[in-house]
Specification:
The structure is a single chain. This protein has 197 residues and is of the alpha+beta class. It has 5 helices and 9 strands; from the N terminus they run E-E-H-H-H-E-E-E-E-E-E-E-H-H. It has 2 domains: 74 residues; 109 residues. It is 41% helix and 24% strand. 31% of the residues are buried.
């Protein structure tokens, strides 16, 4: 177990969490402010020409209050994972492709070295919810979690957090069942999907 507020193995977990939290609130505060500036003029000046801007502003507010709770939930999951698992170097990280899901876009990545500590294909989501470039071959990465259950990828330098879980989730179900009670309990403590049984 590790303290999610500590500097772990050269990765400043506290800084990464604080940065991500600050960016979430800054991003959505900006969207709300801009949306309100678009909404207010039409009713204030009783101008029909401004109603299209009001419509855009309302859409922005709806988007904000739809996405913000999800980002906060993802941040909460990251905090639990980083408190339950040590962060270990899993370079190189290689991005394979992008994919979409009901929860937005994801990218498929591989962690570690072939024949040494290579992970299964992981579907990773940026905690801030934004689209990002697929990592270059050999990118540096740290991982807190369990390859069978998922975890958090930390990208040094940017302090970016990616939530990841095995892409072929159902195919690894027998391996998770055989992983042992201790691993499942740790995954449950971390709030990972495979530990919630």
């Amino acid at each position: 177990m590790i303290d999610g507020e500590a500097v772990v193995s050269g990765v400043d977990v506290q800084r990464a969490l604080k940065r991500s939290r600050a960016l979430v609130f800054r991003r959505f505060a900006t969207i709300v402010l801009v949306s309100l500036l678009l909404v207010v003029p039409a009713p204030l000046f009783h101008s029909g020409f401004l109603f299209p801007l009001s419509f855009l502003g309302i859409c922005g507010l709806i988007y904000t209050f739809k996405i913000l709770p999800r980002s906060l939930i993802w941040l909460g999951t990251c905090k639990r994972v980083l408190a339950a698992y040590p962060s270990v170097p899993r370079s190189p990280m290689a991005g394979q492709q992008r994919m979409t899901s009901s929860k937005g876009w994801k990218m498929v990545v591989l962690l570690g070295r072939e024949g040494v500590d290579r992970s299964p294909e992981m579907a990773a989501t940026a905690v801030l919810g934004q689209r990002r470039e697929i990592p270059a071959e050999g990118a540096e990465a740290w991982f807190a979690g369990d390859d069978l259950f998922g975890g958090v990828i930390l990208l040094p330098g940017t302090d970016e957090l990616l939530l990841a879980e095995p892409r072929e989730w159902d195919e690894l179900a027998p391996a998770r069942e055989a992983a042992g009670r201790a691993r499942r309990e740790t995954a449950k403590q971390a709030g990972l999907r495979g530990g919630r049984k």
